[in-house]
């Protein structure tokens, strides 16, 4: 992600304009004292999915349905605090949101059409089964007088 003022590409030619993204920065939690790792590096990226005009209506409906558990008043939130620099955390949050939206707006998979087992294969299986039974029956001591 080069420039942070560039729109966030979801998939194909569909992207979210920077104006619709809300950034918030706070101090990362974790160990450290005397200003160690305590600079404002945690990034929270919020995107109002319910009110956006950037996504096609079908995609928006699909995303709202799939992300229902993650939404707060129609807003999806992504946090990043794994890097020490705020810039890298911004990039990580943007990538995460783009991936989340791409997955949530993806079309549903095609239903699986079950295939029939060809008759020849079934017959061969039964023939081999009979052959195996014959072999095993021949191993018993019956019939040897």
List the helices and strands and how they pair.
Layout: E1 8-11, E2 14-16, E3 21-26, E4 42-48, H1 57-66, E5 75-80, H2 86-105, H3 119-139
Antiparallel strand pairs: 1-2, 3-4, 4-5
Helix pairs in contact: 1-2
Structural class of the secondary structure composition?
Answer: alpha+beta
> Low-confidence spans: pLDDT under 50, at least 5 residues?
none
Overall mean pLDDT score? 82
Task: Give the strand tally.
Answer: 5
Helix amount: 25-40%
Approximate shape? elongated
User: Tally the helices: what do you get?
Assistant: 3
Biggest β-sheet description: 3 strands, antiparallel
Following the backbone from N to C, one meets helices and strands in this order, namely EEEEHEHH
Describe the protein in words.
This protein is of the alpha+beta class. Helices cover about 35% and strands about 20% of the residues. It is built from three helices and five strands; from the N terminus they run E-E-E-E-H-E-H-H. The chain has helices at about 55-65, 85-105, 120-140, and strands at about 10, 15, 20-25, 40-50, 75-80. The strands form two sheets. Strands 3-4-5 form a three-stranded antiparallel sheet. A two-stranded antiparallel sheet has the order 1-2. Strand 1 (about 10) and strand 2 form a beta hairpin. Helix 1 (about 55-65) packs across helix 2 (about 85-105). The mean pLDDT is about 80.
């Amino acid at each position: 992600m080069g420039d942070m003022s560039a729109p966030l590409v979801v998939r194909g030619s569909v992207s979210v304009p920077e104006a619709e993204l809300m950034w918030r920065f706070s101090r990362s939690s974790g160990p450290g004292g005397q200003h160690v790792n305590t600079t404002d590096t945690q990034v929270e990226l919020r995107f109002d999915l319910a009110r956006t005009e950037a996504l096609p209506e079908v995609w928006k409906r699909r995303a709202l349905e799939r992300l229902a558990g993650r939404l707060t008043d129609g807003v999806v939130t992504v946090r990043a605090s794994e890097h020490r620099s705020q810039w890298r955390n911004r990039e990580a949050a943007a990538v995460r949101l783009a991936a989340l939206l791409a997955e949530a707006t993806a079309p549903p998979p095609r239903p699986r059409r079950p295939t029939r087992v060809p008759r020849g294969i079934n017959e061969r299986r039964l023939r081999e089964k009979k052959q195996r039974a014959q072999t095993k029956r021949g191993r018993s001591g019956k019939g040897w007088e």
